[in-house]
């Protein structure tokens, strides 16, 4: 499938794409920036948040974001309106990727930049910013998404090299019956999203591609990128898949860190904003 550059950036670690209205929201983790991109015009605006920002999902007029040691509500001008501090094992730990379930609860996990394995966690954040640990023993928490019927949750642990799937209880906001879904042999599993057919689109860090996984976990399509460090993907209007990339981690390509798009001929499953508002 062909790809095009929709925004020629040099993001150190572009991540967290989220289509909302006519804008693509995304972050540059290392720069501590939340971006809003209009693909129709190419106009991109950035707001700087103090420190790294692992992911930012729209909430009201702002975002809910995972920062280094807290989950925060960030206003449209970039100011932090409220936050919940989450104890971290050390200074090299921080929040990474995140997404909201159908009830608007924010799910986000942590990672250790020093590379410790099995020391991180996955959390659920309710509308009042109450944080609940739902999974421990994580190495590098990454992509999260739900099946179109809301009964399954897919979850990538990058340093474990795998994507797992859980049964999901939307009423209780709980997960169970964990089992292996897909193990990557060409790059680490990074961000992911789900299409309307119930297939998972997985970005491969170090693999230079996004692959489509059937509900059985088999690869049936591949979108090759002209860069190595592919970080995440999200559906936009119609059948457009947006892809974020990074200009770090050994990437030397001219377009590393840019935002790409591909017509993948299938629409995306619904995605959700955070239930708590930011004004």
Task: Describe what this molecule looks like in 3D.
- The structure is a single chain.
- The protein is mainly beta and 279 residues long.
- The protein contains no helices and 24 strands.
- It has a single domain (4-263), classed as 6 Propeller (Neuraminidase).
- Helices cover 0% and strands 54% of the residues.
- It has a 4-stranded antiparallel beta sheet with strand order 1-24-23-22, with no helix packed on it. A 4-stranded antiparallel beta sheet has the order 2-3-4-5, with no helix packed on it.
Please give the largest β-sheet: 4 strands, antiparallel
**Number of spatially distinct domains:** 1
Helicity range? under 10%
**pLDDT average, as an integer?**
96
Order of helix and strand elements from N to C terminus:
EEEEEEEEEEEEEEEEEEEEEEEE
User: Biggest sheet: strands side by side, in what order?
Assistant: 1-24-23-22
The DSSP helix count reads 0
Apparent shape: globular
Low-confidence stretches: none
How many beta-strand runs? 24
CATH topology: Neuraminidase
In the CATH scheme, the class would be Mainly Beta
- The name of the CATH architecture is 6 Propeller
Structural class, judged by helices and strands? mainly beta
- Say which CATH homologous superfamily is assigned: TolB, C-terminal domain
List keywords for this structure.
24 strands; mainly beta; single chain; Neuraminidase; 4-stranded antiparallel sheet; 279 residues; 54% strand; 0% helix
């Amino acid at each position: 499938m062909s790809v095009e550059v929709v925004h020629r950036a040099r993001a150190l670690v572009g991540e967290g794409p989220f289509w909302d209205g006519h804008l693509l929201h995304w972050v540059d983790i290392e720069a501590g920036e939340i971006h809003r991109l209009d693909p129709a015009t190419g106009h991109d605006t950035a707001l700087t948040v103090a420190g790294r920002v692992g992911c930012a999902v729209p909430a009201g007029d702002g975002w809910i974001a995972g920062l280094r040691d807290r989950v925060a509500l960030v206003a449209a001008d970039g100011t932090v309106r409220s936050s919940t501090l989450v104890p971290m094992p050390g200074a090299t730990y921080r929040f990474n990727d995140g997404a909201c379930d159908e009830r608007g609860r924010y799910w986000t996990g942590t990672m250790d930049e020093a590379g410790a394995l099995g020391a991180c966690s996955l959390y659920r954040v309710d509308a009042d910013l109450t944080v609940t640990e739902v999974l421990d023993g994580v190495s590098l928490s990454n992509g999260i998404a739900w099946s179109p019927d809301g009964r399954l949750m897919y979850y990538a642990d990058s340093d474990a090299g795998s994507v797992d799937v859980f049964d999901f209880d939307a009423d209780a906001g709980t997960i169970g019956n964990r089992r292996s879904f897909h193990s990557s042999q060409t790059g680490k599993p990074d961000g992911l999203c789900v299409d309307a057919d119930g297939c998972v689109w997985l970005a491969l860090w170090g693999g230079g591609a996004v692959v489509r996984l059937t509900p059985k976990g088999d690869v049936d399509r591949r979108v090759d990128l002209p860069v190595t460090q592919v970080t995440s993907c999200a559906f936009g209007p119609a059948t457009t898949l947006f892809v974020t990339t990074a200009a770090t981690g050994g990437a030397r390509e001219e377009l590393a860190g840019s935002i790409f798009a591909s017509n993948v001929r299938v629409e995306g499953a619904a995605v959700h904003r955070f239930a708590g508002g930011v004004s």
